[in-house]
Amino acid sequence: MNAQDLEAARAVAFRFIGYMPRSRAEVERRLARADFAPEVVAKVVAECEAVGWIDDEAFARRWVEDRADRKKFGAARLAAELRRKGIDKESVTEALSAASEEAELERARAAARSRWRADVVAGLAAEARDAEKRKLVNFLQRRGFSWPIITQVLAETMANKE
Fold first, then answer.
1. Domain of residue 45, CATH code
2. pLDDT digits (tens, 9 = 90+) for 83-100
3. Which of 74, 140, 158, 161 pairs as cysteine with 144 (C-beta 3.0–4.6 A)?
4. What is the SS3 assignment for 144?
5. 157 Cβ partners below 8 Å, 6+ apart?
6. Which residues make Cβ contacts (< 8 Å) with residue 19, sequence separation at least 6?
7. Torsion (CA) 9, 12, 17, 22 in degrees, nearest 10
8. Are residues 42 and 65 in the same domain?
9. CB count, 10 Å around CB of 84?
10. Predicted confidence band of residue 126 (pLDDT cuts 50, 70, 90)
11. Residue 35: which H helix or E strand, with range?
12. Are residue 26 and residue 13 in the same domain, yes or no?
């Protein structure tokens, strides 16, 4: 491992981290994609962790807060995204435990409101209305909400009369 390679890897890592927070695995993959030797990658990542530029637990907490509020995603979708980013299972569980079930239910309600237009659905025939219900359920499932939350949101939506 020569000093030139180390400096070049640091520059790539700093630029990559500078755009937005990244997980350890993302930085490792980025440096590996730039064809740096594994020992150079390990040294640069360790340096970044030592100064606090890479912190998977903090990254996971921020990711959950941001994506849950901004995108209205459920716990399953958030967990899958974090696992793809290389976050370990314990950190994922810890980050998701910070969000309450009531907050997730409210996110599901908000997501459903964005899809369900009561005034439009009310004028549909029963068969078309059932198709719209299925679309709403599928939408909430893709968003990562659990079945109990989906059924509760669907029941509330139907109670508010189509």
1. 1.10.10
2. 999 999 999 999 988 777
3. 74
4. coil
5. 112, 116, 118, 136
6. none
7. -70
8. no
9. 11
10. confident
11. none
12. yes
CB 78 within 8 A of CB 67: yes
Measured CA to CA, the distance from residue 2 to residue 19 in angstroms comes to: 27
> Is 162 a residue whose pLDDT tops 50?
no
The helix-helix angle for 75-84 and 56-71 (nearest 10°) equals 140
Residue numbers of the domain that contains 150: 101-159
Q: Are residues 92 and 105 in the same domain?
A: no
137 pLDDT band (50/70/90 cuts)?
A: very high
Residue with the two structure tokens 């912190």: 55
Q: Which two tokens stand for residue 70?
A: 């901004």
Cβ–Cβ under 8 Å, residues 133 and 154: yes
How many structural domains does the chain have? 3
* Together in a domain, 85 and 105: no
Indicate the residue type of 33: R
Q: Are residues 80 and 114 in the same domain?
A: no
Write the pLDDT tens digit of every residue in 38-82: 999 999 999 999 999 999 999 999 999 888 888 889 999 999 999
Question: pTM higher than 0.85, yes or no?
Answer: no
